[in-house]
Amino acid sequence: MAETIRVRQTTRSRLGRRGIRCRPAAGAATANLRVNGVNGVNGTAYRWRLRRRPTYFQVLSWTPCTYAVEHADSPGTTLLVTTNQPHPSNWFGREAKPVLPSDVAEAIGRALHKGWTPTDSGSPFHLDRSVGFVPSP
């Protein structure tokens, strides 16, 4: 069963200035995306942050781009997502796809399916999506 959710960026965040808000679409003029079989995203707001200044290993394209996600209302366990793309600010000019709110919503759905509980305290939950990443020599 597929459900449609609306993605809206928020501005206040403990993780940074960008966030994601997911709720049922009500025919508004915002962009809609389709998420198949995601439970728990409907009506829940999440904040996410991509590091503006990459780490040294990300600058050299030795490690992929990562971003963090947390529950907006009651932050607990942070979700750390490793992508299969180099950081956009790498020094070698390797082509990098930007992290979009739809990518974040999909990662949240996968993490929730794998057992991430965003309101419980604890160690960060790692979601590795780096299959296919090729580091620079």
Describe this protein's structure:
With 137 residues, the chain is α+β, with helices and mostly antiparallel strands. The protein has one domain (2-128). It is 12% helix and 28% strand. It contains 2 helices and 7 strands. It has helices at 56-59, 101-113; strands at 2-8, 19-24, 32-36, 45-50, 66-71, 79-82, 125-128. The protein is elongated and about 40 Å long. Residues 1-40 have low confidence and may be disordered.
Please tell me how large the radius of gyration is: 15 Å
Residues in helix, %: 10-25%
Oligomeric form: single chain
**Low confidence ranges:** 1-40
Number of helices: 2
* Main sheet makeup: 7 strands, mixed
The fraction of residues assigned to DSSP E strands is 25-35%
Number of domains: 1
